[in-house]
TrEMBL record, chain A:
CDD domains: TM_PBP2. It comes from Paractinoplanes lichenicola. Keywords: Cell membrane, Membrane, Transmembrane, Transmembrane helix, Transport. Residues 333-356 are annotated as: Disordered. The chain crosses the membrane at residues 42-62, 104-130, 142-160, 166-184, 219-252, 272-296. InterPro entries: BP-dependent_transpt_permease (IPR050366), MetI-like (IPR000515), MetI-like_sf (IPR035906), OppC_N (IPR025966). It is a multi-pass membrane protein. This is ABC transporter permease. It is found in: Cell membrane. It comes from the Bacteria. Belongs to the binding-protein-dependent transport system permease family. Residues 105-293 form the ABC transmembrane type-1 domain.
From TrEMBL, chain B:
Keywords: ATP-binding, Nucleotide-binding, Transport. This is ABC transporter ATP-binding protein. The keyword Metal-binding does not apply. CDD domains: ABC_NikE_OppD_transporters (cd03257). Pfam families: ABC_tran, oligo_HPY. One of its GO terms (molecular function) is ATP binding. Residues 7-259 form the ABC transporter domain. The keyword Transport applies. SMART domains: AAA. PANTHER family: MALTOSE ABC TRANSPORTER, ATP-BINDING PROTEIN, OLIGOPEPTIDE/DIPEPTIDE ABC TRANSPORTER, ATPASE SUBUNIT. InterPro entries: AAA+_ATPase, ABC_transporter-like_ATP-bd, ABC_transporter-like_CS, Oligopep_ABC_C, P-loop_NTPase.
Length: 356, 334
């Protein structure tokens, strides 16, 4: 209920302003949904990523030309017919970029998922159980840490002469989990000695429950950023493999486009439209994933999360960031602040320096 | 008496927008030179938020949404702490206002010697000071707080809890600040040690002439050691008066409740009574006086109108103020 101001003023004359009525607030603030999207980085990153996923799904169906089809328009610059121009065989670059989105996104996310699942299982088990299990699993991840993934893939794909995208995703996923496993193991080691974990162990919670309900929520941010990092790594690996000509048989992807552009000396021919779209596609996908990664980092702290945003505007129009030690002041006092100087004699040298 | 710190209409919120929680509401408080001002109240009443707000030490998402904190230096003109630039604020802290934190004895770094941690402040605020004079100052400070100077080279784990607390108090005083804010500095110590440390603090204050804002929920401690007591409830100050006045004749039912919750050492026996209910939820404050749902004397205006802190209409009501409809106020104080 609200109180009419006039009645307050009647009770204490002249103090209506100070005893300003306060509207009764609802007992519980509504749970805010989609808070993660309030973060601009997260929203921007997710929108771009969403577009990529969309094109990965519908890309091959909406290509204006068959990406393999040759035509008589050889090395044409972008035009209304060919938005991104054509290659040395008259193939449409736009169709190739669209068609190439699916394998990139597919390999990236599949490899990321495999690596994340493996790193979570191995890292947390090693960190939480300790002892011999830890020794064995740590040794295993150390071995995988030193396996060079790309040379290994070059060898494997050259043995199998028709390596599918699924196989490439599997190889990337199976070789790139070890770094995240180490990070998770270290974090788990620190978490398992915390009081709330010890308490749940003391009350007899099952190990799987402690790991699932007490540990995992604390590791969400680490796992999520590990996943994003692995996806970026997998995308770049696939494109590297295609660029050096290893997986060209597996259909179009951005690396294949770059492989042909490089092979036909697109740069020397001045055919920028041949390699720029694919390069930008890679760059934007990397940017989107990095933005999501940054947003996750910021989202980790429940304090910042509850605030929704960390930047705010002051009355004077400036923007202040919330940070520890310097609480922002949103002053709404009508008169300007007294801005007198500290007397120099009363100051320490540093204070004197600061007021100069 | 000359004021050293004036808090005017200070408002502090946690969070932004319509989900913000107002933790400190329109607080007006004046700290005079050489005075010990006690700040009492239940957990969650806004005591610590007020202290951290006026020094701008609140961690995110804390925001100061309005008000002024006027500091009067010994020499020179008063200025608003909330308007200081980051650099000036950094220089202001410790040199003018020092804080002894809650559980301060765990704030010492376990891998550095006491001497290193004491002289570090001097190094930061006065880089031209020689190492010899820094050490001399640190020794002097230790002696002041009752620790033998040969403990200079001790590590924190070699000291007892009480000694660590004294080191922290000494560290707070090492730049001779005008205002020392103590946020429940003795809650982790036993009562004997509490008394000793507080006695020493009062002695130091008489010698060095600083003012103290002492935050605690232990009202009995305040009655003994402070000059004035301000009682907070639900983010507001509900009563403010000299310590003896509050003890003898508290006006606000909440202050009375706090006072009757601990026994007196001397005098006639009286019944101990707690305050029923629990502190208000700052996100959903009751209308009117925030204490009215728990107040034994609540009557008609309490649930609809917020009482204003003002001078009560009583014969000895010169230097006190209260925010309660039982005691109609004449004029605002502060």
């Amino acid at each position: 209920m609200t109180i009419p101001t006039s009645s307050t003023a009647q009770v204490i004359p002249g103090q209506g302003a100070m005893a300003a009525p306060e509207a009764a607030k609802p007992a519980k603030a509504k749970r805010q949904r989609f808070l993660f999207l309030k973060n601009k980085k997260a929203a921007f990153g997710l929108i771009i990523l969403g577009l990529y996923v969309l094109f990965a799904i519908i890309g091959p169906w909406i290509t204006p030309y068959d990406p393999d089809a040759r035509s008589n328009d050889l090395v044409q610059p972008p035009s209304a017919d060919h938005w991104f121009g054509t290659t040395h065989l008259g193939q449409d670059v736009f169709s190739q970029v669209l068609d190439g989105t699916r394998p990139v996104v597919f390999v990236g996310f599949l490899a990321g998922t495999i690596a994340t699942v493996l790193s979570v299982i191995i890292g947390i088990t090693a960190g939480y159980l300790g002892g011999k299990t830890d020794d064995t699993l740590s040794a295993l991840s150390n071995v995988f840490l030193v396996i060079p993934a790309i040379p290994l893939m070059i060898i494997i794909t050259s043995i199998l002469d028709n390596a599918s995208n699924l196989l490439i995703a599997l190889i990337i996923g199976l070789t790139s989990w070890s770094w995240n496993a180490r990070v998770l193991r270290a974090q788990t080691l620190s978490l398992r000695r915390r009081d709330y974990i010890e308490a749940s162990r003391a009350t007899g919670e099952k190990t799987w429950r402690i790991i699932g309900f007490e540990l995992l929520p604390n590791l969400t941010a680490v796992i999520a950023s590990g996943f994003i990092g692995t996806v970026i790594f997998a995308v770049l690996s696939l494109i590297t493999l295609a660029f050096i000509g290893i997986v060209s048989a597996a259909g179009w992807n951005w690396g294949t486009i770059l492989f042909w552009a490089q092979g036909q000396q697109a740069l020397a021919q001045g055919a920028w439209w041949w390699f720029v779209p694919a390069g930008l596609a890679i760059a934007f996908l990397g940017t989107a994933l990095s933005l999501i990664n940054f947003a996750i980092d910021e989202f980790v702290s429940p304090r910042l999360r509850s605030a929704g945003k960390t930047k705010l505007k002051t009355a004077s129009g400036g923007t202040v960031r919330m940070r520890i030690g310097f609480t922002p002041v949103l002053s709404n006092s009508p008169e300007p602040h007294t801005r007198a100087q500290i007397h120099p004699d009363a100051m320490t040298p540093v204070a004197r320096e600061a007021t100069k | 008496m000359e004021p050293v710190l004036e808090i005017r209409n200070l408002n502090v919120e946690y969070g932004l927008g319509d989900r913000a929680v107002r933790a400190v509401r329109d607080v007006n408080l004046t700290l005079h030179r050489g005075e010990v001002l006690g700040l009492a109240g239940e957990s969650g009443s806004g005591k610590s938020t007020l202290a951290y707000g006026l020094t701008r030490l609140l961690a995110p998402p804390g925001v100061i949404t309005g008000g002024e904190v006027i500091y009067h230096p010994e020499k020179g003109d008063p200025y608003d702490v909330l308007g200081l630039s980051d650099k000036a604020l950094r220089a202001f802290r410790w040199a003018e206002t020092a804080i002894v934190f809650q559980g301060a004895m765990n704030s010492l770094n376990p891998v550095h010697k006491i001497s290193t941690q004491l002289t570090d402040v001097l190094k930061a605020h006065d880089p031209n000071m020689s190492e010899h004079s820094r050490n001399a100052r640190a020794r002097e400070m230790l002696k002041l707080v009752g620790i033998s100077p040969d403990r200079m080279d001790a590590y924190p784990h070699q000291l007892s809890g009480g000694m660590r607390q004294r080191v922290m108090i000494g560290m707070a005083l090492i730049l001779q600040p005008q205002v020392v804010i103590m946020d429940e500095p003795t809650t982790a110590l036993d009562v004997v040690m509490q008394r000793q440390i507080l006695g020493q603090l009062i002695e130091l204050r008489e010698r060095l002439g600083f003012s103290v804002i002492f935050i605690t929920h232990d009202l009995s401690l305040l009655v003994e050691f402070s000059n004035r007591i301000a009682i907070m409830y639900g983010g507001r100050i509900v009563e403010e008066a000299p310590a003896s006045t509050i003890y003898r004749d508290a006006l606000h039912p909440y202050s009375k409740g706090l006072l009757s919750s601990f026994p007196a050492l001397r005098g006639p026996r009286r019944e101990l009574a707690g305050i029923p209910g629990s502190p208000p939820d700052l996100a959903g404050m009751p209308t009117g006086c925030s204490f009215h749902p728990r107040c034994p004397k609540a009557f008609e205006p309490c649930s609809t109108h917020i009482p204003v802190l003002g001078r009560p209409d009583s014969p000895d009501g010169a230097a006190r103020s209260v925010a309660c409809w039982l005691h109609p106020t004449e004029q605002p104080v502060g």
